[in-house]
Specification:
β7 and β8 form a beta hairpin. The protein is α/β, with parallel strands linked by helices. It contains 13 helices and twelve strands. α7 (about 225-245) runs parallel beside α13 and α8 (about 270-275) packs across α13. The strands form four sheets. The protein has a four-stranded parallel beta sheet, with helices on both faces. It has a four-stranded mixed beta sheet with strand order 8-7-11-12. Strands 1-2 form a two-stranded antiparallel sheet.
């Protein structure tokens, strides 16, 4: 864990890391001066080809601001089993039909069906126990190691493919299945998977990623280690806040997509929640609380373009046309006239990370924030 003072114990808030004793991210006290980086930068269009980012990305080429690689994301040593031995134990599940599920005390073959389930397994060092996955984002290999991303993808979610999914799962002989819940789940999927192995369903909403981390770690037989993961995220968030004085900066978070072009990023994504966790200032039109947008007061006058800020994080990725869409968006008059773009304080970050779920993705987002929030884009 980061060498910092112990985290403060505060009431739980949605979207913030906590442990079984409900520790919440609390960034308090005076903040020290942040690190200021200097340099000269490329045009916004060039930054799509060589963007400034602190997470590995296919569009980044060699221009990375940190040395971490996906192969270093997972814990190198498995977290010790906290319930060794044979037999079963009960854990919670959000499946309305089975709120408690009996699972192996120390599972050895895990089917991780959901980005959060894979992320937590990686963070706990259990990647070698995972036999198959589902629900990983398109560019998951920008922050997860290739052997984990390359496992069989069963394309199973909570609302489709009951019989086919169960048949595919059975071929992998799991002794535990952890499944991401869906908006409109099909009970037949869970029932079919439960016939293959004990199946735990977890809440996959980004707003509840900390609760999900705890639930998944418990299913894996490592609840205390799961709490430690969240404490580590808390320490990293406090370190980021202390090192970068984010409250003094208006941080704009935008999404570049094929369908919507450039738009303010949804508040219920991991990236937005991490900006809240470090206490980052946001432009008036982008302010959030607990993952919900705060509407400006009726009497508040508009302040420039809603996309602008002292610094802009542009979330890119997720489709075949991502790079082309970004090039087109960053070439528009609206974009090039933004103050942060003119000041070379726009940074491209990966959608797989900033819209991810779990402690590995959260740590990567905090690395992005810490490495770029006070920076000027270097040469591409």
């Amino acid at each position: 864990m980061t060498d910092l003072a112990p985290s403060r114990h505060r009431p739980r808030g949605r979207g913030y890391p906590f442990t079984p004793v409900r520790v919440t991210v609390g960034v308090v006290g005076p903040l020290v001066a942040g690190l200021v980086l200097a340099g000269c930068g490329p045009s916004p269009v060039d930054m799509v080809e060589h963007p400034v980012t602190t997470t590995p990305t296919r569009m980044a080429g060699e221009e990375l601001q940190r040395s971490a690689e996906p192969e270093e994301s997972c814990a190198p040593v498995p977290a010790p089993a906290e319930f060794p031995g044979d037999g079963l134990r009960e854990v919670a599940s959000v499946d309305p039909a089975e709120e408690r599920v009996e699972v192996p005390r120390s599972p050895e073959r895990i089917l991780a069906l959901g980005a959060g389930a894979v992320d937590v397994a990686c963070a706990l060092g259990l990647q070698d126990l995972v036999v198959g996955t589902s629900g990983l984002p398109r560019d998951a290999d920008v922050y997860l190691p290739a052997p984990l991303v390359g496992l069989p993808d069963l394309a199973i979610n909570g609302d489709s493919g009951a019989e086919d999914g169960a048949a595919a799962a059975r071929e992998l002989s799991p002794d535990l299945i952890v499944l991401a819940d869906s908006i409109d789940p099909d009970p037949a999927v869970v029932r079919a998977l439960s016939e293959v192995a004990p199946t735990v369903v977890y809440d996959a909403r980004s707003l509840n990623w900390t609760e999900s981390t705890e639930a998944i770690a418990d299913a894996y037989g490592r609840p205390r280690a799961g709490g430690d993961l969240l404490l580590d995220v808390i320490d990293r968030a406090r370190f980021t806040a202390d090192a970068t004085t984010p409250r003094d900066t208006w941080v704009s978070l935008v999404s570049v997509s094929d369908a919507d072009g450039v738009a303010v990023q949804r508040p219920d994504t991991l990236g937005s929640l991490m900006l809240e966790a470090v206490g980052a200032g946001r432009p008036p039109a982008q302010r959030t609380r607990d993952g919900q947008r705060i509407e400006p007061a009726p009497e508040s006058p508009p302040v420039g373009d809603e996309l602008d800020g002292d610094v802009i994080f542009a979330v890119v990725g997720g489709s075949d046309r991502s790079e082309q869409s970004a090039r087109e968006a960053f070439a528009t008059d609206r974009w090039t006239e933004l103050d942060a773009v003119g000041a070379r304080r726009m940074f491209v970050v990966d959608r797989a990370v900033w819209e991810g779920s779990g402690p590995v993705a959260a740590r990567a987002v905090l690395d992005d924030i810490r490495g770029s929030i006070n920076g000027i884009a270097p040469d591409g």
